[in-house]
Automatic annotation (TrEMBL):
Residues 6-33 form a coiled coil. Keywords: Coiled coil. InterPro entries: CENP-P. One of its GO terms (cellular component) is chromosome, centromeric region. Pfam families: CENP-P (PF13096). GO terms for biological process: CENP-A containing chromatin assembly. It comes from the Eukaryota. The gene is Cenpp. It comes from Calonectris borealis. This is CENPP protein.
Length: 193
């Protein structure tokens, strides 16, 4: 058999093995998520949920009120996406550790801000006290398509070290807006000459 044909088959086999590995990990994650709760806890939650809704609609909002709230939230979300330019395209989370007062989840986000795409991966540690819940971000990893710019590369590295997502999204919104303006300007001059 020709070496190039063998290589094509080997590449296909490797691709399929990687896909099987990813699917196995997803399956394991979903199994792990469901095993954090015992059968008793699940039954208690179901019974509590049933009691809550069988008790009538006292103090409950009507369906039309809920629909109005949903429409309001969708309007707010649309406004924020237009205002910031940030649009999330996917999100996944995996519970790494869960105890009574502490939960560690691994999050993966991807999206666009104007014409720049980004991907984030981080761990979120949530600790619950009697009065409040606190959250700490760790292991932040940011992938952006325009990392060839040294200033962006420095900014991304600094943000990864600090684990400050708010600063990242604020700066990304501003940078991406001006990046888009520069790109359009250069395209305009490129077309002219």
């Amino acid at each position: 058999m020709d070496n190039s044909i063998c290589q094509v088959y080997e590449d296909e086999i490797q691709s399929l093995e990687e896909e099987i590995k990813l699917l196995a990990e997803k399956y394991e994650d979903s199994q792990q998520e469901s095993t954090f709760f015992s059968d008793e806890e699940i039954l208690m939650s179901i019974k509590s949920f049933q009691r809550e809704f069988q008790g009538g609609s006292k103090g409950r909002e009507s369906l039309s009120d809920l629909k109005a709230q949903l429409e309001s939230l969708e309007t707010d979300l649309s406004f924020l996406m237009k205002f910031t330019g940030i649009q999330f395209t996917s999100h996944s989370k995996k519970t790494v550790e869960k105890t009574r007062n502490r939960t560690v989840r691994k999050h993966r986000l991807s999206g666009n801000c104007h014409s720049l795409s980004f991907q984030l991966e981080f761990q979120l540690l949530e600790m619950q006290n009697k009065e409040s819940v606190s959250a700490v971000i760790s292991d932040l990893s940011i992938i952006m398509e325009s990392r060839e710019d040294s200033d962006v590369s420095k900014f991304v590295s600094s943000t990864e070290e600090q684990g400050n997502l708010l600063t990242f999204f604020r700066s990304l919104s501003s940078y991406a807006e001006w990046y888009e303006h520069r790109r359009c300007t250069f395209l305009h001059f490129k077309v002219m000459f």
